[in-house]
Amino acid sequence: xPIPADFADLAADILVRxxxxxxxxxxxxxxxAQQYTANVLLAAGAVPSMTISPDExxxxxxxxxxxxxxxxxxxxxxxxxxxxxxSAANAGRKPWVLDPVFVDRAPQRAEFARNLLAHRxxxxxxxxxxxxxxxxxxxxxxxxVRLAKTYATxxxxxxxxxxxxxxxxxxxxxxxxxxxxxxxxxxxxGSALIAAALVVEPDPFVAASAALIAFGVAGEVAAVDAxxxxxxxxxxIDALYGLxxxxxxxxxxxx
Amino acid sequence: xPIPADFADLAADILVRxxxxxxxxxxxxxxxAQQYTANVLLAAGAVPSMTISPDExxxxxxxxxxxxxxxxxxxxxxxxxxxxxxSAANAGRKPWVLDPVFVDRAPQRAEFARNLLAHRxxxxxxxxxxxxxxxxxxxxxxxxVRLAKTYATxxxxxxxxxxxxxxxxxxxxxxxxxxxxxxxxxxxxGSALIAAALVVEPDPFVAASAALIAFGVAGEVAAVDAxxxxxxxxxxIDALYGLxxxxxxxxxxxx
Amino acid sequence: xPIPADFADLAADILVRxxxxxxxxxxxxxxxAQQYTANVLLAAGAVPSMTISPDExxxxxxxxxxxxxxxxxxxxxxxxxxxxxxSAANAGRKPWVLDPVFVDRAPQRAEFARNLLAHRxxxxxxxxxxxxxxxxxxxxxxxxVRLAKTYATxxxxxxxxxxxxxxxxxxxxxxxxxxxxxxxxxxxxGSALIAAALVVEPDPFVAASAALIAFGVAGEVAAVDAxxxxxxxxxxIDALYGLxxxxxxxxxxxx
Lengths: 255, 255, 255
Description:
UDP-N-acetylmuramoyl-L-alanine:D-glutamate ligase, homotrimer, alpha/beta
């Protein structure tokens, strides 16, 4: 396991690989998040695609390097597409990320998400309320570790600080800015960035941690001159686009 | 009824309550407007959700404090969701706002909107062309007052100046900037802001007026340094995020 | 055919006509691109509408001046809407633009796009990979000219340089900035701008060329002060909004 000081270098290295490789990430994501997610991926050097038609999604996933499954808008067509897409990803040994948005708001969605866990996402990215809903307990407690072990996945629990675990290793990332919670789709875009990182980094624990470090540091850089969430939303994309190793090493707070 | 000079203070107070209460607003809105609407709500301190799946929308509305129904993209799934959502809102005594986008363009949409009026929206927010189409007359004339009386609702007619009435009281708000008409979803986002205001202010006439004053003043603040509609779209979100009583009192033009 | 030096003046003139006429452009476009496309049209003085409901799309197209058909998200409802919309456009002698997004990724989509070509789009706007997929050859070669002749349409092939042809005349436009490829929906928005230009310029070869020149020059102006793709996305909208003849003449690189 990398020692904390290594994470900034790993994140910098993964960003360089991402810009070189230009990984294709197919995103089944909610309609609120599509544009921002695409722009975050493009800023990081990845190539997004977003169709949700069940008829053609297998072809899109086959031509992609990773898949994001985000449950934010949960219409019938997206649900049908998700099954096909995950089968195609698993058949092609392509990593996929689950973002179980708002499973705390509707029981059907939580059940749907629990079923998806059995299909081997490389990473699950969620917030505390979603984790509680998914694990069926009253408080998060050791839910990340349990969930990671049960499903042999990486759990990336994001919030004021982000916690990443594979059940054995743990990283806590204290980067980011409070304005990130004031821009819609910020978490969704972070999940997409994790999917892109999985393409260029074989260890999913490292990939997820690196993506969240890079995104959090970009948020801190963006917050310096932002006047509010409107200018911040553009500035974090600029910051991610220009992010380098020196900035990552100066800002990264990993333990 | 508040005298005009009071409105700036009321708007300031309602903004403070919104930031404290963080009202949850479920939005059935068109796919063009979803992202911008969510960001305007977040900037004002509210918490948006946006799913349109008929299967789970009742659960989302039950967990929300107010509902927005916007007809901008009028697909089959949204129409099915609207009926369920309004029933859930009315059952839970939660206020809902109707935004009958583009009812002047398609007769089916106007008829659908007229049927919705019977289900007691707290506020209807529209422009002149939409009002004419909805009321079936050739010119707006006294349509706002008639519509407000007939359906026991608040009519918020927006344009160069905004006119709000409950059939008896009237407020005219001469705030805003012409760039607001050059950014898509600006009107839709204003309707969402009204929905958020309804959660923290029991008088819907005051809530609708306050939301439109706050949004219009934010537009004036944003226009000062904007270079065009692109920078303006971000700046109005920044301005709304930072809006305070002094700025509202300096800018509000209510009669 | 205009000599190259004329194109800047033509583009300036078409922009003025667009701002005066405020053409209505109905867009069936993918959900990722809807907001940005609407904002680009509004910045240029056009009036976008975006509904995709097959029930009402004929009424919307009948009330519009031009139609954009973009295949970016290829769901069942959009496909049904496209047939109705094209029939309405052709019945009303309104120009329509085909943007066959990602036909290189899924064979069904390429076949669907080829069928659409028979329905007389005024302009087809695509990139090299999409052109290769659509023409069924291994490399673009003379595919633009062949495609234009076969379908009596204008082919606008965009990339580092843009190539526009009606099968006989050709224009090469070397404007734009590399950041345009780092913002999602930029190509889609360019196609919408072509649709708006077709309303105010009867020669579709000139209309398509002028729209791409204006968009490319706006991109160059925007790049001057942009810090990355986030600020660039807003700046190009500002630049398009303020674009004038002097700037177009100074920047236009047409041959």
